[in-house]
Amino acid sequence: MFPISQSQLAFESGGKQIQIDCYAPSSNGQRFPAVIGLHGSGGGYPVVAAPGRLLAAQGFAVFVLHYFDRTGTTWVEDKATAVKHAPVWMKTTWDSISFVSRHSQVDPDRIGLLGFSLGAYLSLSIAAIDDRVKAVVDFFGGFPREMKLFMRRFCPVLILHGDADQTVPVSEAHYIQEIAERKQVPYEMKIYPGVGHGFSPEIMFDAGQRTLSFLKRHLAGYQLSAISYQLSAISYQVSAVSFQQ
Prior knowledge:
Elements: E1 4-13, E2 16-25, E3 32-38, H1 45-57, E4 61-65, H2 79-101, E5 106-116, H3 118-127, E6 133-139, E7 157-162, H4 171-183, E8 187-192, H5 201-220, H6 226-244
Parallel strand pairs: 3-4, 3-5, 5-6, 6-7, 7-8
Antiparallel strand pairs: 1-2, 2-4
Helix pairs in contact: 1-6, 2-3, 5-6
């Protein structure tokens, strides 16, 4: 477990200042794999910040991207708004990867994306065109059908979804699975029975374990030890409960 530091950074995208919160392991010049977190349509930054701090303690430099800053959005109320702003949010995400890759504590060859709902749509869209993205964690998101026209690659993906999701139907998870199989890239998928859009502390506990294990393999390049896995699981459980309060 690493002690972590927290800082608020910013970069420019499309003439706008974009906030990006950094949770980094303390080190003496060591470079770490990086994870850029993207919130959902409600702009819920704490949803990404909570697991971000825990991933940082496990040796990841985590950056929570305020991509709504690009459009002055506070929350997205309908699909039309999301479709309208998606191209500039994608460009902002692209620019965030450039910014993160230059960070002194980041290994630019080991960058992944973690997205919730709308943020997962954006993460997977970028992963389809940007070779710098080495892994994606998809929390109840999907892949835009329009991106098939521009898709030129894919990367390992962890798919986490509830089969009772009325906002983003579980068919989206299976569509991502089909893409991964067609592109012959590794993927993992967990469909939670009876679970809707958003996870309870108990489900988040399991999803957190899967997220950490997946990122350790595909970004950090090693398997979790049994002891480390148990400690990380406990940390995720505490975080999930805290988030609900």
